[in-house]
């Protein structure tokens, strides 16, 4: 996954700290083996920063598990693709660190993925560029076939899994989807790409209650304050006013 | 078998702004009204946790459930219409209060020119300036006749504005009930630029109230807190004027209003001469009912007003080939010329705001400027708004930026608070090929044909767009942007991106029963006891948001309904070929 190399150093530290704190594997290395993948980077990262309270929450973030995807690889391909769409950079975290892949997984498991509020009666015809979403596939199916198509296209182009491509190669593949240059059944590549793209942005910036926008870092990057009840006293101010972001959670009365 | 209920005096289909106004006005007079609304009940209490962009602005939490019903769409008659499977271009209301819950609150009066557009255009520019294919018509009512009803709506809704600063807008006999909203650095900058260009800027008249207000019915609307979650959301304070804090409680307090939610009307019962009632499905039990009534009022927004008439075989459907028939005719939308300015060294508090907070000029609206040497008529109101920018929906980047990846990310973050836009509600003129009809293939959840929209941009639209967009660029340059980008029109109208929920026409008002469907009381020429209220009555679409005019026509219609109870028959003498039964 794309965050792996960035986080490599941190993970090294965290592994050591984890081992020290728990005494789980005395003197041994966890490596990329079984324990590593069971615990996942979040657990390790969280453990590493025990002093920072907001990150400790991550250790107990039971929400970071899969509701929709059944194969780890599919989820990893999704994760890598979202990271290319919204990458980590000087501004701050990318899609993976923000939790966007979990956001998408959880959304696909519910009404959004099931097109509960969309007109899904047939007959189905392809439609012009101006007629919008025209497929019998529900959004979750679109993601399924889209992810498979990403892998297939990576094999065709580069003889490798999407997960093993360089970032720029991954971009090339994604661009082909946006440009409608891939063979797909049931849905156009552009429809899939646009869905992936918009879901990624939604996950980066929606209220953290949905599992994305981790620690409100999406909002922090955009200097967006989230949920305030009133700006009446500040409307006339000339200067830009920076505010500590607040999530909907802060609005619960109890 | 549908169960037949006891007859009532008046039944309305839909309880949004228009249904609410009818309910309030009639029940205050002691008349019993049944309001059938397909959606759920809701009030200010439902909006306590509303600051959720994803749930409400992106996933359309308050809008129509398309799984039950949508429209189909095609650009032209040679194309196969396909269902609008998800919301996009416009956001249809559902639930008590209708789209009046999640509207922005910009409240205008159409111009005197709008109501007599055909006559005035012919007089000033000669017959047929636009050519044969544009089906321009007068509305059969003058501005002077409508003025008191405009005020009635504004007074009920407590609209905040400064009429004195609006010399080119429709003339007013009385000031706005509450003062204009706050001036901000953004509105001030627009006004300064407009003044420098010798235009006439003013604050947009707003249904987000500048101060707490009690309306003549005794309903209180609170003061707007500029929370920035207005458009597409309900107001947590009851500060945005909506049917839910005004006309609906007024109707309920009389004890004469029977509001039935989850009641989806499928047909108007019609005996070939009069409407006898409506058929509806209770969505919670699946039971079917027939509600007989003396007077039937369609207040179900443009789309369903037209669809119910067509599905009930009432009136003659419009045929674009022969140009005969009136139901479905003169569908119009709006055109949105504009400009975006990028500011390198300044940041604005764009995350704060209110749905109708903004400044505007109407120097390029209506016939406020000379069209003699121009290849279009009408225009639009140009405005800057500060509605509260949110991060999912607002990712404005310079045109040459890709729409994903690293560059997109950093540019969209950089410019989040560094862009301002000038937008426009551009008027839309009716064209013979733009119309509404029934779809031959697709059905709703109850087996009734969906409404089919056939629509594309016309030459008039493109010419208007290009001219007005240049004006927007000029103002934005004067506002000091480092880079200004002009809006572009797509090759064809596209149902996908959100544009505006200002759909009009289909059951148009006029003074000639041959060319219009309702008289100026919104009473059908063909069916005396059937009133059809809403922007469906607009014979074309003007250059402002519609609801002020919709509200005025609704108040006018309630007077018609009361008069009809006394006199029966047609309230208006038709111009020619009238099937008139009575002269008022
Ligand atoms: C996001 C947004 C912003 C807007 N901003 C502005 C603005 O700033 N200024 C402005 O002037 N206008 C604005 N509008 C438009 C404004 O909301 C409408 O003009 C206005 O609400 C129309 O009132 P109406 O009563 O005709 O329809 P609605 O308010 O839509 O009410 C119609 C009701 O009928 C019900 N209904 C429909 N069919 C049936 C059926 N078969 N059976 C039972 N019930 C049915 C619907 O559920 C709905 O509740 C905006 C609209 C949207 C969506
Ligand atoms: S901006 Fe004002 S009117 Fe709109 S929701 Fe917020 S407080 Fe209510």
Give a verbal description of the structure.
The complex is a heterodimer of chains A (254) and B (584). Chain A has ten helices and no strands. Chain A is mainly α and 254 residues long. The model of chain A is unreliable at 1-56 (pLDDT under 50). Chain B has 584 residues and is of the alpha/beta class. Chain B has helices at 17-28, 53-58, 112-115, 117-125, 143-157, 185-196, 247-254, 301-311, 406-414, 459-478, 547-567, and strands spanning 3-4, 8-13, 33-36, 71-74, 82-83, 202-203, 213-214, 220-221, 257-260, 263-270, 275-282, 288-298, 329-332, 339-342, 353-361, 380-387, 419-426, 435-443, 449-454, 483-486, 504-506, 530-532. The longest helix of chain B has 21 residues, at 547-567. Residues 577-584 of chain B have low confidence and may be disordered. At the A-B interface, helix 8, helix 9 and helix 10 of A face helix 2, strand 5, helix 9 and strand 18 of B. Iron/sulfur cluster binds at residues 208, 224-227, 229-230, 233, 235, 237, 239-240, 354-355 of chain B.
Distinctive features:
heterodimer, A: about 250 residues, mainly alpha, 10 helices, about 50% helix, about 0% strand, disordered N terminus, B: about 575 residues, alpha/beta, 8-stranded mixed sheet, 6-stranded antiparallel sheet, 22 strands, globular, binds flavin-adenine dinucleotide, binds iron/sulfur cluster
Bound molecules: flavin-adenine dinucleotide, iron/sulfur cluster
Q: Average pLDDT across residues of chain B? A: 97
Structure classification of chain B: alpha/beta
| Chain pair with largest interface | A-B, 61 and 64 residues
What value does the Rg of chain A take, in angstroms?
A: 20 Å
How much of the sequence of chain A is in beta strands? under 5%
Number of strands of chain A: 0
**Mean of the pLDDT scores of chain A?**
83
Distance between the termini of chain B: 41 Å
User: Which term fits the overall shape of chain A?
Assistant: globular
Q: pLDDT under 50 segments of chain B (min length 5)?
A: 577-584
């Amino acid at each position: 996954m794309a965050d792996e190399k960035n986080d490599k150093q941190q993970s090294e530290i965290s592994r050591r700290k984890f081992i020290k704190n728990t005494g789980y594997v005395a003197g041994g290395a966890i490596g990329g083996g079984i324990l590593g993948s069971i615990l996942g980077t979040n657990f390790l990262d969280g453990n590493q920063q025990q002093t920072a309270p907001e990150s400790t929450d991550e250790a107990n973030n039971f929400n970071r598990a899969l509701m929709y995807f059944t194969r780890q690889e599919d989820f990893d391909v999704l994760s890598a693709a979202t990271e290319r769409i919204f990458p980590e950079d000087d501004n701050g975290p990318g899609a993976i660190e923000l939790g966007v892949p979990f956001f998408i997984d959880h959304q696909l498991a519910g009404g959004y993925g099931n097109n509960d509020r969309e007109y899904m009666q047939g007959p189905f015809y392809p439609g012009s560029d101006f007629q919008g979403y025209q497929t019998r596939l529900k959004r979750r199916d679109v993601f399924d076939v889209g992810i498979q198509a990403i892998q297939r296209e990576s094999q065709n182009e580069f003889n490798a899994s999407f997960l093993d491509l360089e970032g720029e190669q991954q971009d090339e593949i994604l661009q082909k989807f946006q440009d409608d240059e891939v063979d797909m059944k049931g849905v156009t590549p552009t429809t899939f790409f646009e869905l992936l793209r918009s879901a990624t942005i939604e996950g980066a910036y929606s209220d953290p209650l949905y599992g994305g926008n981790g620690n409100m870092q999406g909002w922090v990057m955009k200097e967006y304050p989230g949920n305030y009840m009133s700006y009446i006293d500040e409307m006339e101010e000339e200067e830009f006013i920076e505010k500590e972001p607040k999530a909907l959670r802060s609005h619960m009365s109890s | 078998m549908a169960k037949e209920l006891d007859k009532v005096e008046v039944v309305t289909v839909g309880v949004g702004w228009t249904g609410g106004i009818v309910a309030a006005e009639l029940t205050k007079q002691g008349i019993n009204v049944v309001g059938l609304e397909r959606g759920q009940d809701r009030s200010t209490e439902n909006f306590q946790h509303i600051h959720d962009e994803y749930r409400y602005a992106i996933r359309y939490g308050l809008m129509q459930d398309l799984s039950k019903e949508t429209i189909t769409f095609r650009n032209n008659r040679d194309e196969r219409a396909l269902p609008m499977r998800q919301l996009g271009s416009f956001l249809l209301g559902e639930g008590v209060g209708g789209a009046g819950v999640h509207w922005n609150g910009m409240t205008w009066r159409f111009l005197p020119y709008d109501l007599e557009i055909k006559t005035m255009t012919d007089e000033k520019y000669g017959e047929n300036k636009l050519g044969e294919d544009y089906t321009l018509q007068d509305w059969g009512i003058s501005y002077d006749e409508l003025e008191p009803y405009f005020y009635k709506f504004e007074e009920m809704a407590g609209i905040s504005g400064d009429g004195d600063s609006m010399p080119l807008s429709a003339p007013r006999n009385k000031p706005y009930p509450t003062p204009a909203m706050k001036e901000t650095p953004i509105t001030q900058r627009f006004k300064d630029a407009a003044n420098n260009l010798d235009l006439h800027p003013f604050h947009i008249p707003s249904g987000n109230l500048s101060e707490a207000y009690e309306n003549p019915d005794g309903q209180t609307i609170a003061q707007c807190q500029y929370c920035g979650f207005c458009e597409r959301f309900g107001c947590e304070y009851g500060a945005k004027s909506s049917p839910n804090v005004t006309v609906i409680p007024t109707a309920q307090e009389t004890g004469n209003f029977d509001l039935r939610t989850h009641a989806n009307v499928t047909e108007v019962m019609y005996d070939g001469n009069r409407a006898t009632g409506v058929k509806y499905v209770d969505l919670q039990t699946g039971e079917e009912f027939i509600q007989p009534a003396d007077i039937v009022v369609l207040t179900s927004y443009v789309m369903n007003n037209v669809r119910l008439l067509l599905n009930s075989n009432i009136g003659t459907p419009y045929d674009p080939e022969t140009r005969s028939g009136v139901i479905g005719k003169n569908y119009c939308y709006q055109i949105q010329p504009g400009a975006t300015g990028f500011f390198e060294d300044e940041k604005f508090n764009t995350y704060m705001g209110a749905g109708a907070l903004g400044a505007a000029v109407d120097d390029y609206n209506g016939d406020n400027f000379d069209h003699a040497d121009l290849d279009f008529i009408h225009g639009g109101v140009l405005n800057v708004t500060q509605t509260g920018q949110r991060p999912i929906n607002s990712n404005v980047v310079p045109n040459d930026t890709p729409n994903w990846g690293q560059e997109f990310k950093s540019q969209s973050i950089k410019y989040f608070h560094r862009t301002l836009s000038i937008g426009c509600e551009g008027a839309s003129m009716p064209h013979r090929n733009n119309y509404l009809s029934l779809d031959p293939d697709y059905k709703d959840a109850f087996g009734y044909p969906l409404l089919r929209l056939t629509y594309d941009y016309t030459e008039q639209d493109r010419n208007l767009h290009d001219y007005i967009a240049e004006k927007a660029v000029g103002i934005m340059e004067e506002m000091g942007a480092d880079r200004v980008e002009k809006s572009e029109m797509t090759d064809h109208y596209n149902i996908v991106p959100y544009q505006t929920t200002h759909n009009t026409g289909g059951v148009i008002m006029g003074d000639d029963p041959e060319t219009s469907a309702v008289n100026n009381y919104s009473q059908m020429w063909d069916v005396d006891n059937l009133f059809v209220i809403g922007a469906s009555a607009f014979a074309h679409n003007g250059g402002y948001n519609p609801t002020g005019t919709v509200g005025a026509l609704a108040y006018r219609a309630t007077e018609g309904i009361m008069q009809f109870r006394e006199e029966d028959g047609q309230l208006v003498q038709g111009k020619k070929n009238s099937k008139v039964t009575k002269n008022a």
